[in-house]
Amino acid sequence: MEHLLHSAQYILSFVFVISVIVFVHEFGHYSIAKLCGVKIETFSIGFGPEIWGWNDKSGTRWKIATLPLGGYVKMFGDTNPASVPDSQKIAEFSAAEKKIAFHCKPLWQKAAVVTAGPFSNFIFAIVVLSCFFLYYGKPHSVPEVGSVIRGSAAEAIGMRAGDMIEELDGQKIERFEDLRTIASMNPDTKMKIIYSRKGKKISASITPTLSESHDIFGNKVKVGLLGIASSKVEYEKIRFPRAIFEAFNETYQLSVNTMKAIGQIITGKRDSSELSGILRIGKYSGQAAEQGFSAVLWLMVVLSVNLGLVNLFPIPLLDGGHLLYYAIEALIGQPVAERFQQLGFKFGLAVLIALMLFATFNDLKYFNLF
Description:
Layout: H1 2-35, E1 40-55, E2 61-75, H2 87-91, H3 95-100, H4 107-135, E3 138-140, E4 145-148, H5 153-156, E5 164-168, E6 171-172, H6 176-184, E7 191-197, E8 200-206, E9 209-214, E10 220-225, E11 228-230, E12 234-236, H7 242-267, H8 278-291, H9 293-311, H10 319-332, H11 338-366
Antiparallel strand pairs: 1-2, 3-12, 4-11, 5-6, 5-7, 7-8, 9-10
């Protein structure tokens, strides 16, 4: 019985976390589309058969579907939830219908509607982080070496307790957390480090050691370590409006590090097994719920930023694929041929299915099911 309750908690946590960030994404599309005068036929959280729903005054069907793995906004003139245009149907539209059809809108409005989804995910991350910093505070510690681990990369270049880190890999270090972030993202990579000792600057080359560490949920992850510890960590409560600036900066750094990690997976520098699927996301959601609301908030920030970034990839079916088509349309002065679009969408679907299967395979290996 206890095991069933534990599993139910993980499932409910996963559904809650995914539903929130999907709603944020789709509401971005919905809100800008409404501003542009587009009729919205369906707003769905999840895919498959409808579990529950209602119609609003404008005729939009708001619904929750069976599979909580995404969502969509179906606009007037779309043939399916992927917003594929129905050219034959659009050609038969009356003047009144064309005014409310998405694909009949000016190019800049269509691009704005598509961009609004990922943009909303970034805005959500900034808002949540701002509230987090205002209420809980932001981890802060001066970049001072508290101790040096024996046999570490830091010891190899002669670092000592009391040294102040000023730069690493060309980036200015203001907090010890900045140092940890850069090192963890660059295992086995030689970098330049500048630190000071009793007012004297020292420059050296250091290579973070590849090691297995644990994330905030206790899961093993491969990271780069310098082998130093900070002297003290505090949570600094930040006032408005600085909290917004810090949240914006944190979201930017998270985006950069995410893209860097993806690049390292593509080039083979980082193990592709780190690509997680829904099974591990479900585990992380459950673990976050066990640790408290602050951990759930942080997980939603990470997943929201990831969803925003992935959707900007120029893959047909994703928002970035639609933006690619609009960019081509702007260059050639006419919409991309429907046949070419259909081929692109089939290719995009194949890519997304392959990535999903690969990520699920990684999850199954992670849980030792092979």
